[in-house]
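Minimal example, chain plus pyridoxal-5'-phosphate.
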Amino acid sequence: MSYQYNFSAGPAMIPKEVMLQAQHEFLNFNETGISVMEMSHRSKEYLPIVEKAEKNLRNLLNIPNNYKVIFLQGGAITQNFMVPMNLLSNRSASYVVSGYWSKRTYNDAQPFGTIKLAASSEPNNFKKVPSFESWNFDNNDAYVHFCQNETVHGAEYFDTFKIPEVPLVCDMSSTILSRPVNIDDYGVIYAGAQKNIGPSGLTIVIVRDDLLSFADQKTPSTLNWKIQSENNSMINTPTTFSIYMAGLVFEWLLDLGGLKKIEELNIKKSNYLYSFIDADDFYINDIEIKNRSRMNVPFRMVNDDLTKKFVATAEEKGLYALKGHRVVGGLRASLYNAMPFDGVESVSYTHLTLPTTPYV
Ligand SMILES: *Cc1c(COP(=O)(O)O)cnc(C)c1O
């Protein structure tokens, strides 16, 4: 059985064109006779790869000059402690909890100092994100943390935020590059690569340069944003191949027309799937409409047997990884940038093959 469309939440699908190019160059990159995977990270062959990747990322996201881009390891979860280690500096910080990931971030930060809850949508079972107006933070906080899209619960912030007094720190793991954002509104943005950028192993951190001076003295060099930034993310060996792959994805996005264009496509894809879900009571997604995620669409069926049947039927039709996250169950279709519209349509075709079982 070979799969046709990959709905995995992460590591997730990578654009076909990028995979083909990587395959083509795999054994012999740019007539060097060696693979990118085998190159020294400091070599004249490799350095242009990372420089171009950063340039293209800056171009796509319109990153101002006073922001550093750092290529790190350890995933988004490692930022759960790197953020307080690099920013807290004996002050307090406020965290917005809007789902599984931001709750984990809030809990992970606790040992590092005064970590306060700014707002939580847990009492609403994370069915809507806490409105910006409800965030309770202090102008003396070192930062305010939130997650732009809850990958498990499928709830996303579409608001733009202006908090001039306190740096805003954002986990954009599952939304980065899915639409334009105004970088100036943020102090720090971070994202694991394996959702919308490329292979796992790479974590991208974008940080305003005036925030680089607060690291705790005990912060190890590999985990220190300032030291990594001053050393072009090479205080130790970076994830060279993942950075190369990310660079190919950035080029693919630029060729496609950039983030405005990909946003249009992402709106079209997610609208299609939500319309399908809402069309009858057979499928349920009860996230507040205005917070419905464009990247991760969780839904359930009226009972577990039907859910299992849907997953099995989908697999037979070549659709990979539609099973929901273990925490919430049900189904989940992740519709990252690389997912073509045809793939989204194929989810709805699965429906037609199900027996017309009565609702309960
Ligand atoms: C996947 C994900 C994480 C965890 O990322 P790792 O790279 O596994 O550490 C954190 N936050 C969000 C929003 C995610 O989607």
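The radius of gyration is 21 Å. The CA atoms of residues 5 and 342 lie 9 Å apart.
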